[in-house]
Amino acid sequence: MIDKQALDALLAQVKGDGLRLTGPGGFLSELVRAVLERGLRAELTEHLGYARRDATGNGSGNSRNGSTAKTVQTEIGPVDVKVPRDRAGTFTPMLVPKNARRLGGLSDVIISLYAGGMTVRDICHHLQRVYGTEVSPDTVSTITDEVLEEVKAWQHRPLDEVYPIVYVDALMVKVRDGAQVRNKACYLVVGVNTDGVKHVLGIWVQQTEGAKFWMQVCTELRNRGVRDVLIACCDGLTGPPEAIEAVWPHTTVQTCVVHYSEVAVMPMPRRMPVRLFRSVLVLSA
């Protein structure tokens, strides 16, 4: 995308002038600014339908109207850009959307740090120290809250009516709870749809694993649209099989190979082709 000779000349200039690569006024920041401003000008040209100083724009009813200075936070630090305007106020830029203050995956960095257990203020200090980017604690909280809304939407999304195979299990994971890290039970349900594609149907976190909560999990899956399960694979605990049989009475419950303590023959499920039945045994292993 950039000529090698031109790039070498720029790097030599950076080394000679002692210019920083990142941070305010850094080489990469200036490069990003130039690219964004050029792209914004191209967007405005496409929106107006004529180039700058083109006579075809005379009497068109809309024209360029200067620019607005704006600072956006990026992974390489704050970048000052000039966003062009049109007189009619109908220009909606895509590179730097209106009211956007973060670009280049900065939100992903904040979410990753938050998921790693860092507090809101620790994230602010980290971004300032590493990227030279000043982000307020309120902004960090807003970003994490947006993710929580997406998680809630995913947790309550509708599911398919039939899943040939469903895997249920509970894993003990370490979860940050306030100022401490505790071991909690993560209830996990994975379903294989009729196209043979695995989907995570749901994840629930509780203090411990119990039969009562497995009943709640299966009931929630049914309320979200799951009307039938052909084979359910689970461990040797008593809770999952009882909950599965109560919600889906005709489902064949298969104990996974790891927990299968004795040799047994699994009965052929209803409406299950032999080829699919053999694949179930392979997947269970």
Structure keywords:
Nucleotidyltransferase, domain 5; 3 domains; five-stranded mixed β-sheet; two-stranded antiparallel sheet
What is this structure's SSE topology?
Layout: H1 4-17, H2 27-48, E1 64-74, E2 77-86, H3 106-115, H4 120-130, H5 137-155, E3 162-177, E4 180-192, E5 198-206, H6 211-223, E6 228-234, H7 239-247, E7 252-255, H8 274-284
Parallel strand pairs: 3-6, 6-7
Antiparallel strand pairs: 1-2, 3-4, 4-5
Structure description:
The strands form two sheets. Strands 5-4-3-6-7 form a five-stranded mixed β-sheet, with helices on one face. It is built from eight helices and seven strands, in the order H-H-E-E-H-H-H-E-E-E-H-E-H-E-H. Residues 259-285 have low confidence and may be disordered. The longest helix has 22 residues, at 27-48. It folds into three domains: 1-104, no CATH class; 105-155; 162-284, Nucleotidyltransferase, domain 5 (2-Layer Sandwich), CATH 3.30.420. The chain has 285 residues and is an alpha/beta fold.
What CATH architecture of the largest domain do you see? 2-Layer Sandwich
Assign the structural class, choosing from mainly alpha, mainly beta, alpha/beta, alpha+beta, or little secondary structure: alpha/beta
Order of helices and strands: HHEEHHHEEEHEHEH
Tally of individual helices: 8
Q: Tell me, what's the shape?
A: elongated
